[in-house]
Specification:
- By secondary structure, this protein is an all-alpha fold.
- It has one domain.
- The chain has 7 helices and no strands.
- The longest helix has about 35 residues, at about 80-115.
- The model has no long low-confidence stretch (mean pLDDT about 95).
């Protein structure tokens, strides 16, 4: 499915932004402690890059079924109960992501429209990037959950993992 490929691509490729965040942090440390010349931008850039990665990896983590879970309890349950619990979790997730998308839509659009800025010394447009991405991330997770729900329902309780 398209949503599977998109979420996988985002999860596997945006992780490189973490490396850029590490390099920015290392640069800040060197400048601050060796040259006594701290930057205005390194901390904000690091937060922005990590935020982008965190948000856009949600669909990939959902696809891989790698969210935090109490797997020891799931392993003890019979297959039909495990199926019912997975179904319940997906439905709750769909409702939560729909609510998050609904709540993030207007603030994200406003931040993008006015190019909202942080107001710091660097005054980056981080809010104009992050706020719309909250909506995008919620939609990506919602769509991945919907695809996974269809797969679960098609598999049935006997063949569900």
């Amino acid at each position: 499915m398209v949503i599977d490929r998109l979420n996988r691509w985002l999860g596997e490729n945006l992780c490189w932004l973490y490396l850029v965040a590490v390099l920015a942090t290392a640069y800040e440390v060197v400048m601050r402690y060796l040259f006594n010349a701290p930057t205005d931008w390194a901390f904000e850039l690091t937060i922005l890059l990590c935020g982008i990665c965190y948000l856009l990896a949600g669909g990939w983590v959902t696809q891989k079924d790698a969210h935090i879970a109490i797997t020891s309890l799931l392993q003890l349950t019979p297959p039909r109960l495990k199926y019912a619990l997975r179904l319940f979790a997906m439905l709750v997730g769909l409702i939560a992501m729909a609510g998050l998308a609904w709540a993030a839509w207007r603030p994200g659009l406003r931040a993008l429209t006015i190019v909202e800025r942080t107001g710091s010394a660097w005054n980056s447009p981080a809010p104009a990037i992050i706020k719309p991405l909250i909506f995008v991330a919620a939609v990506l997770v919602f769509l991945q959950l919907a695809v996974d729900l269809v797969r679960l329902l098609r598999a049935g309780p006997e063949r569900a993992r």
